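Thread: "does anyone have the structure for this chain?"

Original post by V.I.:
We have the sequence but no experimental structure in hand. Need at least a predicted one for the grant figures.
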Amino acid sequence: MKHKMILPAPSLAVGMTATLALALGSSLILAAPDGKYQPLLDALNQKKQHALVEAEEAQLLIAGYQEFLADPELHTEEGPELRRSLIKERARYKQRRAQAGSIQVALQELQRVPTDEHVTLSSLQGAYADLNQLAARGKAAWDEVLGNRERFVKNLEREHAEHMRNAQNALNELNVEEQAAQLLLNSIDPNLGGSSDGEFFVALKLPAIKSAVERGFRITSSPKDPRRQAQTTLIALIAYSQYFWDHYSGARSLLTEGELPSDRRRNIFGVPDGKVLTSDMVTHNNSHFYYLAPKARESFNARLEMIWGKEAVSITTWDQKYDEQFGRACKGLATVSDEHLVPNQQVFALLEKIELLLNELDLVHKSINHLDSSYQLQLAKAKQFGDEARLSSAHYNAEIWSRESKQLLRGFEKSTALLSQQLQASSESDWIPNARGISGSALIIAKAQKRFYAVRKVKSELKKLLAPRDPLPTSTDP
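Reply from O.Q.:
Generated one for you, tokens below.
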């Protein structure tokens, strides 16, 4: 049986989509600022709506054709015609959807173009005028800055190296380690010729103190190692001075009789016995071993490290069992006056000589640190360029924008002409919008408007930067 074909006619399809067009109307109208392109925006919006309506119409027809083709009672001779119609409507659907999409992009890009009466072809040409000459002057000035900076940095490095060599020579000439070692070794050598009676007496008695502190601090004795002998001798001198802290620091004359520590209760920490564990010299104890606090360790270790560095002996604990032996050795190198022990001033004289050497060493190190710090500050300042750093980016942007100026001006001229032509043609009923041309033109005009102000700004900045500048300093002496 032959079925009668009932397909939606174009007029029927339009009627079916009229409601859709009305519903979409309010959402498809894009808000745009008032301006000369507003009529073009309205016309584009209408064309987009029309394309969407036709796409919906084609979609309805496609559905109808597919339904008939799926009918098992469809006659064979009717199939080819239906398939041709289906293919035609599918193509129309894709075409109208693509047209609506390209128009939508054109609408969006055109809306983004701000209304700026100041940006015209002539004003753009004026903005770009002399930009290439300013860019060339900026590059020459930047090259000069780089050359001056390079010379300044080289001079700075040369002077710093010279200062450091002088400081190192002073350090080598001072030779604190050798001077201190020789002074300390002589102080325990009773066979040294030309020594005074006082020096001879110290040389006889000081080794006993040295032996006591080696045992108390658990330092391995190395009689054949001059460096170790010098280090433990210095520890003995420091221990002796702390044992007689009130004399060495001059505190005895400032204290009343009731405040004086008993001469029978002295120790290596310089605090009265019985108050050692409650003082800030010991952190804790394990039986007769005292674990020295940082303050106590530093009183011994700091001076040794200044002289011998990492190879210096380091003490951490004191064996209380050697208190008595250490005390007897200290008293052996002292005298009794007015019922008080009086320390040997020759020992303090030795310590003062060591202190003078360490003070000289500290001054040299401070000088080196100051030289290095001053060098780093000046080098960092030279690398920062200060305000001249803007010259680099300013001349670079000017060069790039100057090279692009012809293309941008030509594109701006063509784009404004195209938009004017489309604006005029949009009032015609048979107008077919050049959506891609409108989108591209809107982008070029927006870019030109931004570039107009950027070029004027960089020209103004270059003129300021190319004004006479203060040269880099030539003297780097700290």
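V.I.: this helps a lot. The chain has 14 helices and five strands.
O.Q.: and Residues 157 and 340 are 61 Å apart (CA to CA).
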